[in-house]
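retry 2 of 3: previous attempt timed out while embedding magnesium ion. Reduced batch size to 1 and resubmitted. Inputs unchanged:
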Amino acid sequence: MNLMPFALARERTLARVSPLAETETIPVASALGRVLAEPVVAPFNVPNHDNTSMDGYAVRFDDLASGRDSTLTVVADLPAGDQLTQTIGAGEAVRIMTGAPIPDGCDCIVIQEVVQRDGDQLTVPQGQTRAQNIRRAGQDISAGREVFAQGRLLSPPDIGMLTSLGLAEISVHRRLKVAVLSTGNEVIAPGTPLEPGQVYDSNRSSMKAALQALGVDILDLGIIRDDKKAIAAALRKGAAEADVVLTSGGVSVGDYDLVTDVIRELGSIDFWKVRMKPGKPQAHGRIGDAIFFGLPGNPVSVLATFLLLVRPALLVMMGCKPEPMKQLVVPFGGDPIKKTGDRMEFARGVLHHEGAESWVGSTGSQNSGILSSMSRANVFIVLPDEPVEVHKGDLVTIVPIEY
Ligand code: AMP
Ligand code: MG
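retry 2 succeeded.
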């Protein structure tokens, strides 16, 4: 059986999806994690006036003597939020607080810690420089500049930036809706004791949690028995009500792996055997307008294939620009890895930071049923298709695990 190289699987996954066309206008205050549907251009300078970055005194630099202290007269007091109408003349200074606009005539802020004040008399030590402690208008964002491109996934500082531009509402792509189900006669929900042969449905929980982290709407279709009719009914509902249908289990080659057959009947399917470990068998397809991802049943495989293939595709559907997989090269430490087989391996690893040094080690056993290894990991260690041994000090490629 021909295995598809991981890089091709990723390329094909991204090529199959496109951004949701529908947009909506929402308050900036609730736009965290949403994706901009239009670029944002600064309507004015931020800050919109020259202002002081320190508490102290606004002075005219040319009034200051070089090589000795200078004495000036404080003629006004300027808290942040106030404005001065007067122009400051020769020998005059203004008491000024951080954020207040620079008074006309002044071009230097002397911090309060270095001056001496006696009534309205101010002594400024030598050694000041022109324009010190002044934040220029437009220093953060200049008027007319594109602040964010379309497709920007909004972060907390982005929300702050949009607000500093005076925006109260913003146009974003509508929320993506993903239907989730798990399959398996042995799979049960927590709440009843496990009978021999049963497992709790960790996959649906981890898939839903990973989707929550992406901020998508979730349609939970529960646990579906290994029965074609039941699977078909659930998939039909998912495809009718959501943009994406995500399943776990039933895509391997066992007698009860029925998901692939059902998709073939309901829609179209590409069944992929990907040259990756974990996550070899995967079903990618369409049911009506919905995109279908059939992930393997092993708890580690579900999360690995979700992170490496599905999540990037969901981000594109959400409106983000496709991005290459993040990869770093770091020294390997810890117990050696002996990798056999012919599939690219995404071994679970922990990136350690000790002082200025970083190194990555394996989480130990790499069996795809060991969910605790995924829970401990903060990176995948990428091992090539070919067999390889990795020893302390070798450089290895890692992919950060980001939800
Ligand atoms: P499958 O791909 O359906 O053959 O499942 C592969 C393995 O993953 C089996 O050992 C299943 O018991 C286990 N498994 C399948 N679905 C789940 C699930 N939802 N939660 C936890 N383990 C599962
Ligand atoms: Mg199964």
